[in-house]
Amino acid sequence: MDVGNIAIQLLSGLTVAGYLFIVSAGLTLAFGAMRLINIAHGSYYMYGAFIVAVIVGSTGAHVDRFWLALIVAALIVAAIGAATDLIVMQRIYNKEHLTQLLATFGLLYVFADVALQIWGGGFRSVRPPGVIAGQVRLGGHSFPAYDFFVMGVAIAVGIAMWLLLQRTRLGWRIRAAVEDPELLSVMGTNVPRLATTVFTLGALLAGLAGAVVAPLISVAPGLDTSILVQAFIVAVIGGLGSIAGAAIGAIIIGLFQALGVLWVPTWSSAFIYIAMIIVLVVRPWGLLGVPER
Where are the domains of the chain? Predict the structure, then answer.
């Protein structure tokens, strides 16, 4: 078997792991801090991709706007997330998980219908700027330069999240909310405001992931549900509530997909479920998660 081809497949797996980590980090953060299972999380990812496609344009005529589009998409989606939290989420944080599932499932359909009305049902494509377009030669093989950019963004997000959670007062409050939200409230922290901040941050990360991945995919309705399943698998494998676990889970899923395509192409889509089953058999609460109290 060609070693170079294996290396290319593994790099492709790390690219998938990169954007899966960005999406699932927001999902697992919301669960860790508020115990919220958000089925509508994939909608923010889809909106981020569509916003970049609109700003840059499918013809590439405005490819110079790409860097601006990444920032604008993430910020617009964050604003949508903040509004969603204030209007809907604040009313269901203390409800049982079934209520949260039903409410966010309804939001998923609302967001999908709004997207269909705004952007239609057609496919859109996005061209990356020339500096990160083209191919990179690796041992006689070609690999898209843009994939390295995706990996770089994922690493940057991971470092930023670590600094936020470990080196800032906001991060201390988020970690405290994960451990004991009642005590945090008694100490004077405005827990509803903290919940809005965390939910907004999660939406921003999902929007950023959609914006970053837009040049790699066909931007179209349905992105929300397709990414949601993978993001939940990543979060479950890593342990709901753990950012480091989300990173490990994303790498596992990315590499399992890559090796599946390489070894058993017809069964490659099943590999991520096999990975999840193996982890849950050994640790039902995920690799870095903790059992529910």
Answer: 26-221
